[in-house]
Specification:
single chain; about 260 residues; alpha/beta; Arc Repressor Mutant, subunit A; 2 domains; about 20% strand; globular
Length: about 260
């Protein structure tokens, strides 16, 4: 792990498995952005790969490209006689695990129990493992072997819930400041989900993982502390000084109007 104790993550998507699982569950088309938004709560994503016969899943190619995902073409199962996505993903993940020691976390977007031996081997070698899958089509064996499991269905529900939330009415605040406040809220909630204390440095780091272009000066603040103080003045968050470091900590995100 790096100095801030966040993960360095490699993500592997079994596109056929998850796309069919989402369809059969009656959810909207699989949205990879929801997965990456949640994984970015945990650390830096260093590798993004998706495996499929892309002629069969052409509608996913553009959104995956836009999300920075490398598309790995697979031969048809009739040619190989095996699940070539499973084999290729296993080989690639093990190769990375043994060649890139700084990658400490492996995330698999799939519900397929065939990945159980791979995940068990990665854990045996000290790697943190995460899987993301659709509830009704994910093997319990896969869920049990991972360090963490995230239901894709929950990511969709949180998205709908967040869309329905009202935002605080702040007529005296500029659009740039309001945008910065929203980033603070998102980062603080992410750290709370990960059971981490929302120190100002971690909040800023989390924002930059999700929005690399972030700069508090663009939003009208000379320093990140000034942004935190203004957000508290407007009733967006509550902050306190950490006794040891003297830096700000976000104690609580206040309810929207």
């Amino acid at each position: 792990m790096n100095g801030s104790d966040s993960h360095r993550i490699a993500v592997y998507l079994d596109l056929e498995n998850v796309a069919i699982g989402v369809r059969d569950a009656g959810l909207d088309r699989f949205d990879v952005r929801l997965v990456f938004e949640r994984l970015l709560d945990k650390g830096d994503i260093l590798l993004r790969r998706a495996y499929a016969q892309w002629d069969n899943f052409a509608e996913y190619k553009r959104p995956l490209h836009e999300a920075g995902v490398e598309l790995i073409e697979l031969p048809g199962s009739k040619l190989t006689g095996k699940n070539s996505a499973d084999i290729k993903m296993v080989v690639d993940a093990l190769d990375l695990a043994y060649s890139k020691s700084h990658v400490d976390t492996f995330a698999f977007v799939t519900g397929d129990s065939d990945f159980y031996p791979l995940i068990a081997k990665l854990r045996e070698n000290g790697k943190h493992t995460i899987a993301v899958g659709v509830k009704q089509s994910t093997s319990k064996l896969l869920i049990d072997v991972c360090d963490e499991f995230v239901y894709y269905d929950d990511l969709v529900r949180h998205k709908v819930k967040d869309r329905g939330k009202g935002k605080k009415k702040l007529p005296s605040v500029s659009d740039e400041a309001r945008e910065a406040f929203d980033m603070l809220i998102d980062a603080a909630n992410a750290l709370e989900r990960e059971s981490r204390v929302a120190h100002s440095s971690l909040v800023k780091e989390t924002i930059r993982r999700k929005q690399p272009q972030f700069n508090e000066e663009y939003h009208g603040y000379r320093s990140f502390n000034r942004l935190l103080e203004d957000a508290e003045r407007h009733g967006v968050i509550e902050i306190r000084r950490d006794d040891r470091s003297g830096t700000y900590v976000i104690d609580r995100v206040l309810e929207s109007d």
